[in-house]
């Protein structure tokens, strides 16, 4: 179900070059048509065999078809527009619109039965089928096997008398062992598979890939009493043709009689997709024979008929083929398979920074498609992702500047509520403000404060922990509310922090910002500060003092934000006699979890966090996006002594991704106590897509759960000992979170 359309366009952020007019958005029919077709475009992008090797410019197909789709205000025009979209695929099974009604033969309600022709040929009819697990199925197979024994040849009439959940493959494959004299390899299903989204630029440790997946070819082995007999099969458009029939025909062991021209869809993997009420059918995979070829055809074609029985034209034709000397399969053009899958990066469309409408629509479609298929946390979104497609397509119509374009894509991406989401590109930097204040900002007690002066000469008249009241006349609360629409956040703590750290106070390089600040004494003063690109690239904050040190009461302290891999062994040696270690994980670690966790592993853990990579597998019956699952092995120990004291980890909103993963390893290893406030709630290897206008978007590429299966994303690590810094404590130079953790060892509270 789609959400109601939003009432108004969002306001442009401060610092952007021009305002965007606020106007009502109405559900225009042309937008809905584009959205419906975009869903088809997306499914074909990841499923269709013709798009596996990168030879077809699928972007171009959409750009060519979008105007026709938008203008298709009649059923005839809609069919033509969708056919235009499908045309580059050269798909022989593709069909837009409903197909002809299937023709079912006239037959009784009797289950599969056998009749003997005058020459001793056995006719097995399977017009009505029952469930293979039903009580009557096994006795019926036994009866048919008994009837087959004396037959000199066998004709299988597989034309159905009614629609059925059950195909004839189970029956045929159980009878064939008595009718062949050598093992028969069936064609294998081959379809496209994706695990995660391969980053379009850069790299990832997520192990994402796209591939052709060829299933192992099944085989039918002759029985001990098998005797080779001539075989023929009768099929029509309503038959679900067993792969074994194709294998027999290609091996020269069975003729195929088809009523009407055989369509590959009778035997190969296909999908049918609803496009706004219009069904569209297309290939979803291939069948692969032993020699690496594929194909499908008939030895003889007849007009469609409802007649059955010994005197029907189909049975007489099958009997004539068996009696002839013609080898089965001679008239069929078996063709080579499509080339190997080849990953081709998406076109970047680097210019202009404000793309034309068709490319802006493509940007929305591409972003929606990638997330729809490869974002592991789609189930955790606040609103259905499907609703974002028509909404942002409609809003792209009103875009008239590069800033509006970039900010609209940022708002769409922000709906993922994932701290790994970042829109990267010059136009977004200009829209948000490419230069920053000479101040590092933080949120304390719900207030925005100055945590550090990046340039003391350019930040005169302000002290650390002064509160910012307004910027350029706009209250900070209003600015934060605007920014949180375009800067993604995962939970309450990052909803506070991300807009402040990533966007507050930004503007054009060299511009001057007018700030109102509240000092220690409560007085509000106004100061001006110059913005600079240099400040926007300032190194991230670091704590000071010794990375490893002893605290009073026999407690060790380790700053995991600064501890390097080469320091781990010395750290354990220095703290081996302490009764507890406080690991300060309020920041980003240096990859040390894999060497520290084994030294804490008093639980004897062998398994760590659970990974859930997005998976899409076509042509094998699993056609909808889903999630895989694997458990990360716990890092092996090196035989060095275990640390058996108490272990506490300090956490807050800065504890994200690898920092949270460090916590997951530690809690698997020992009775870990968290102190502080909730962590960021975003974990999983980052991947990246590209969008028209020289933009890139990062997002979390695979899901991560705690070792016991509990959710981490959007929740974060939760403190056992809650402690939040106060403005008074920070102004006094205290680390109240660390103090609270140390007091826990003394009071056990």
Task: List its traits.
749 residues, alpha+beta, 2-enoyl-CoA Hydratase, Chain A, domain 1, Pdz3 Domain, 6-stranded mixed β-sheet, 19 helices, 22% strand, disordered N terminus
Structure description:
The chain has 749 residues and is α+β, with helices and mostly antiparallel strands. Among the domains are: 113-194 and 222-268 and 285-336, Alpha-Beta Complex (2-enoyl-CoA Hydratase, Chain A, domain 1); 437-536, Pdz3 Domain (Roll); 548-684 and 693-747, 2-enoyl-CoA Hydratase, Chain A, domain 1 (Alpha-Beta Complex). The protein contains 19 helices and 36 strands. The longest helix is centred in the first third of the chain and has 19 residues, at 29-47. The model is unreliable at 1-25 (pLDDT under 50).
Structure in a nutshell:
This protein has 749 residues and is an alpha+beta fold. Helices cover 26% and strands 22% of the residues.
Per CATH, the architecture of the domain at 548-684 and 693-747 is Alpha-Beta Complex
Shape verdict: elongated
Which residue ranges are poorly predicted, with pLDDT under 50 across at least 5 consecutive positions?
A: 1-25
- Ends distance: 49 Å
Helix-strand category = alpha+beta
Q: For the residues shown, what is the average pLDDT? A: 92
CATH topology of the domain at 548-684 and 693-747: 2-enoyl-CoA Hydratase, Chain A, domain 1
Strand residue content: 15-25%
Q: What's the arrangement of strands in the largest beta sheet?
A: 2-3-4-9-10-15
Q: Give the tally of β-strands.
A: 36
Query: What profile does the largest beta sheet have?
Result: 6 strands, mixed
What CATH first level of the domain at 548-684 and 693-747 would be assigned?
Answer: Alpha Beta
CATH superfamily of the domain at 548-684 and 693-747: 2-enoyl-CoA Hydratase, Chain A, domain 1
CA radius of gyration is 33 Å
Number of helices: 19
Helical fraction equals 25-40%
């Amino acid at each position: 179900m789609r959400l109601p359309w939003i009432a108004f366009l969002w306001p442009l952020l401060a610092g952007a070059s021009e305002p965007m007019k606020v106007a009502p958005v109405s559900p225009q029919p042309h937008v809905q048509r584009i959205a419906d077709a975009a869903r088809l475009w997306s499914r074909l992008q990841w499923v269709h065999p013709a798009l596996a090797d990168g030879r077809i410019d699928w972007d171009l197909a959409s750009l060519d078809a979008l105007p026709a789709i938008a203008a298709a205000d009649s059923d005839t025009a809609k069919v033509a527009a969708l056919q235009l979209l499908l045309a580059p695929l050269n798909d022989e099974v593709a069909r837009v619109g409903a197909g002809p009604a299937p023709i079912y033969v006239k037959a009784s309600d009797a289950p599969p039965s056998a009749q003997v022709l005058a020459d001793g040929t056995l006719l097995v009819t399977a017009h009505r089928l029952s469930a293979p697990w039903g009580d009557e199925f096994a006795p019926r197979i036994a009866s048919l096997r008994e009837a087959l024994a004396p037959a000199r040849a066998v004709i299988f009439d597989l034309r159905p008398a009614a629609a059925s959940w059950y195909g004839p493959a189970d029956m045929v494959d159980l009878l064939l062992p008595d009718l062949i004299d050598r093992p028969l390899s069936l064609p294998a299903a081959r379809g496209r598979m994706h695990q995660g989204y391969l980053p379009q630029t850069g790299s990832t440790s997520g192990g994402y890939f796209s591939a052709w997946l060829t299933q192992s070819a099944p085989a039918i082995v002759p029985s001990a009493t098998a005797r080779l007999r001539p075989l023929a099969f009768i099929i029509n458009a309503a038959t679900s043709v067993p792969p074994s029939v194709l294998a027999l025909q290609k091996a020269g062991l069975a003729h195929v009689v088809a009523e009407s021209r055989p369509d590959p869809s009778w035997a190969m993997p296909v999908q049918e997709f609803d496009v706004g009420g219009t069904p569209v059918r297309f290939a979803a995979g291939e069948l692969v024979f032993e020699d690496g070829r594929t194909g499908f055809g008939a030895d003889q074609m007849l007009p469609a008929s409802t007649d059955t029985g010994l005197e029907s034209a189909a049975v007489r034709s099958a009997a004539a083929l068996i009696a002839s000397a013609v080898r089965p399969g001679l008239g069929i053009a078996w063709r080579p398979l499509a080339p190997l899958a080849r990953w081709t990066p998406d076109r970047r469309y680097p210019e202009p920074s404000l793309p034309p409408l068709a490319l802006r629509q493509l940007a929305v479609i591409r972003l929606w498609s990638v997330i729809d298929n490869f974002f592991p946390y789609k189930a955790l979104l606040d609103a259905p992702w499907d609703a974002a497609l028509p909404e942002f397509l409609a809003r792209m119509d009103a875009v008239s500047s590069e800033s509006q374009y970039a900010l609209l894509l940022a708002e769409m991406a922000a709906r993922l509520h994932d701290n790994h989401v970042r829109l990267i590109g010059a136009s977004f930097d200009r829209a948000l403000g490419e230069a920053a204040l000479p101040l590092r900002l933080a949120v304390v007690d719900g207030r925005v404060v100055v945590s550090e002066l990046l340039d003391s000469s350019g930040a005169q008249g302000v002290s650390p922990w002064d509160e910012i009241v307004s910027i350029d006349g706009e209250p900070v609360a209003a600015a934060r509310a605007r920014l949180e629409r375009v800067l993604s956040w995962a939970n309450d703590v990052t909803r506070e922090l991300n807009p402040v750290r990533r966007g507050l106070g930004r503007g054009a390089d060299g511009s001057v910002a007018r700030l109102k600040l509240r000092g220690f004494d409560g007085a509000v003063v106004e100061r001006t500060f110059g913005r600079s690109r240099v400040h926007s690239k300032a190194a991230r904050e670091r704590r000071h003092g010794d990375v490893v040190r002893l605290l009073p009461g026999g407690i060790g302290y380790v700053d995991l934000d600064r501890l390097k891999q080469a320091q781990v062994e010395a750290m354990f040696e220095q703290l081996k006699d302490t009764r507890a270690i406080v690991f300060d994980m309020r920041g980003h670690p240096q990859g040390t979890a894999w060497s520290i966790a084994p030294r804490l592993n008093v639980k004897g853990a062998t398994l760590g966090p659970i990974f859930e990579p997005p998976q899409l597998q076509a042509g094998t019956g699993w056609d909808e996006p889903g999630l895989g699952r694997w458990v990360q092995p716990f890092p092996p120990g090196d035989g060095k002594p275990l640390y058996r004291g108490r272990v506490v980890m300090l956490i807050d909103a800065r504890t994200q991704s690898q920092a949270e993963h460090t916590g997951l390893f530690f809690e698997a290893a020992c009775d870990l106590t968290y102190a502080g406030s909730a962590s960021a709630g975003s974990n999983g290897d980052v991947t990246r897509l590209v969008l028209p206008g020289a933009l890139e978007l990062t997002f979390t590429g695979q899901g991560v759960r705690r070792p016991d299966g509990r959710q981490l994303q959007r929740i974060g690590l939760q403190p056992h000992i809650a402690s939040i810094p106060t403005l008074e404590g920070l102004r006094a130079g205290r680390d109240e979170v660390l103090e609270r953790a140390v007091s826990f060892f003394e009071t056990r509270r």
